[in-house]
Design a protein that fits this description.
The structure is a homotetramer. By secondary structure, chain A is α/β, with parallel strands linked by helices. The first copy, chain A, is built from 13 helices and 10 strands. Chain A has a single domain, classed as UDP-N-acetylmuramoyl-L-alanine:D-glutamate ligase. The interface between A and B is large, with 35 and 40 residues. Chains A, B, C, D: Residues 5-275 form the YjeF C-terminal domain.
Chain lengths: 281, 281, 281, 281
């Protein structure tokens, strides 16, 4: 199993081409945030914007419009009940994230269903969207044309894979990822990434100061921005995004008992600048 | 009477276990914030999140949703008129705070009543909830199964205990706490904590730069997060939370004429890191 | 004419009494902010809170609730159409500010009328409230029992006093303040304060980096907090508030081409701490 | 072609006259921000306020009121459906910006039409307003009395000028600007400014860390504030605004992989102070 290192990040974060414009660095859509859990979608969007996505759209319950713009005026907004706009934005996005704070009710299912039908490049499926997919046969039948990345924690992985936590061995996880035709970022103490290519990567950094609500939402935003803007080895890009998330947390934890997800987002720009130059922050 | 010291804090704030996840560090629900005093609930939630609670939910008037997410996207939200969701969240929480900005009208009473019926672990009763309980016989009859902590200032304690301020001697306060079957944090110049165990603790730090609206709301959030995440001597954990609140205020007051409650919250992570290592900030 | 100096500020900002609680440091109500100009009321409230008022309430159009709590969770809110709550809050306040962003329409007049009838301690009349009073005979008949302070700029002073800008000499201004039975803070290059006591004070600090929308709103908040919390010579307290506002601006202008009103508010706590100790910031 | 330098900025940013008040430094109205793209208008307003406009009004969908005031309480707000208030504000403004986040639907067209009819000093036409003007014959017939500045990127310029990107040579661009009777800021790698005077200016600073949503919105706010407050050579003032935007970005990019538009706004005051004194930041 490949242990992800700072070198992976330095390989991925390259100097931007001089003539690049917004479109060059990718379009990201984040679909999530019902009337109770809007913060999750906002944190994912904030991370995507600060990690360098060219254009980022938040597709959410309209109750979340104002908090989004108060925090991230750089992002655009679509009411997730506006299905036409949702489908168009998902269709045009280089990377789509679905799940942060989406919930599992009927609305969530319809929204998720539209996403599955329209995503056609890269689709990151997180949180409650994983749970819905694990439990709903209608949703399972929708096989998107997009490359799929799941980002479950161990309980969500159990629901999706059918593997109990005891059964979640590297071999079984890798086989299941293959069966699901997806990359799987299995979030836990020592996060593992099962790539569809067969490559398995492991994180040996991070810590329990990251165990707070919203941490996974921020991770999805970083993954989305990295995949949207960087060219090259897709496995390494995903590995680098996961490493970046925890490496910033480790740096912040030197001065903090707990690290908040939005603080990780706030430090992305400086971290990426330093890693781009091959320096230590 | 035990004088709380930095040593109490250092005993309580231990290094987190490496394999801990969000659930390990506790669920907190804060119930408060009517259409006029939403800031109070938001400040309590902010303090709970930054003091390290694993998952924090704000249960409030829906007018407060957006300001909450603009300040603390890490928290979840429940409209306090959604009684089913309220009861479920309260029931599942390790620590519940009720009162900050809740008011004393009919809605407040119904909300408080639901909380009293469903809280089953630790319940911190603050502000207007204390006043309601002191004045409403229906509410008094609801004896929750949860361990109760009251956080009154002297006037609220007078209402609840029937003791005039002149009568509020340590002996009488301790007896009344026993009679109420609760811990009592009596907030004043030289805050005293009457534990149900019989232990009485006293704060000799803090100052009048803390005399501003919202200071008590922030205290409840810190108490909740400490009780939700730390193991061991419950009396010492509560003492440590109260000390932390004032110790941060003292540190900030070196550079400020008044200290704002939200500034105390903003400094929790660094303070706790330093106290965890046994260092002075 | 008395030139206000740092010494005035140092005389006014005294160490807080150790046993002081929220009530000790005064209640402030700010009435302003229609559906278009809510920021004005929010800036006044923010300044009052950070200048040390014990309890601050914003009475405004309900459209401004969320932005208020997103910026200043420490403040309470009352919808200005809730006349009962408005009257009660105004009646109970040590200092009331009316005018910032209130406008001059029928709603504004009704709100202002309620304020004039209920304020009974100190009432600061600012901005559009000055214009309304100058132009409306009904409002003029309402003679509040509160001590009145007007904070007009030169055009507003012309409307209120009937003195053209050319006629606004110290002697005529002082006579007019006496006739109006009020203190007048005449805001301009070299602000002058005409006290009802006969004392006239002059500001020789400040500068054109302060010429931006909202600067006067912030001034009202500082005046309110100073008058609400400090004891002693009322003229000197008002002078000190006016000086504090411009002195912070001067300090910030060393590093800024323009100074924003909310930045002045953000620096009040540190400024007041230093002036309290007789130090230079 | 004139290469814009720091010297242009230093010539433009002069010390403010001592007796200047809010009105001296100009009124700016920003019209933009539909229910999906409010952040764009907010970022333009934020930049105008921080770049020193005396009074700034945001005219937008009412969904954007709260996020505006949460970020920029200094600005006033008008619902863009309130046509009377819109027309009055536009008429009274020294500089009007139309376009950021406005969209191209029927509402956008009506709003834009009102702006074209009422702007009478300087009108900056940006983003979707350029697209509407390029495509709608009704709008083309409205010839405003204001001096016009277009701020297209290359695709928008293609729509407006009819020149394909390959055809966009300096000579053809200059001729087209003359034909359009407007200054044109053609935003691209090496932004060019075609002044109606015949002067052509070029930017040789800036970089791909600026390629993120909202960057152009922030530029319009800076241009508006510069034109509203500074006297003298109008071409040089516009050049200086464009240079300022990219120069701040370059400074921030030393520590950031991407630079966010709102960060540029946050650094305007300090940058302008230093350039005013002829110093390097």
């Amino acid at each position: 199993m490949h242990v992800i290192t700072q070198k992976d990040v330095e390989n991925v974060i390259q100097k931007r081409i001089e003539t690049g414009h917004k479109g060059t660095f990718g379009r990201v859509s984040v679909i999530g945030g019902n009337a109770n859990m809007g913060g999750a979608a906002i944190m994912a969007v904030q991370a995507a914007v600060k990690a360098g996505a060219g254009l980022t759209t938040c597709i959410s319950h309209k109750a979340n419009l104002t908090a989004l713009h108060a925090r991230v005026p750089e992002a655009m907004f679509i009411d997730y009940f506006d299905n036409d706009a949702l489908c168009k934005s998902v269709f045009q996005s280089n990377v789509v994230v679905v799940g942060p704070g989406l919930g599992t009710d009927e609305t969530a299912k319809q929204v998720f269903s539209s996403v599955l039908k329209n995503a056609n490049q890269t689709l990151i499926i997180d949180g409650s969207a994983i749970t819905m997919l694990a439990e709903d046969d209608q949703l399972k039948k929708l096989t998107p044309s997009a490359k799929i990345i799941f980002t479950p924690h161990e309980i969500e992985w159990q629901r999706l894979s059918g593997l109990s936590q005891a059964e979640q061995t590297p071999a079984k996880n890798a086989a299941k990822a293959l069966e699901l035709n997806a990359d799987v970022v299995l979030k836990k103490h020592g996060t593992e990434i099962y790539h569809l290519s067969g490559k398995c990567s492991k994180l040996t950094i991070g810590g329990p100061y990251m165990s707070t609500g919203g941490m996974g939402d921020t991770l999805t935003g970083i993954c989305a921005a990295f995949l949207a803007q960087f060219k090259g080895d897709q496995d390494q890009i995903l590995d680098a995004a996961v490493y970046t998330h925890s490496d910033i947390a480790d740096l912040l934890a030197k001065e903090r008992y707990v690290v908040l997800p939005s603080e990780i987002a706030d430090n992305l720009q400086k971290y990426m600048k330093h890693r781009c130059n091959g320096q230590i922050l």
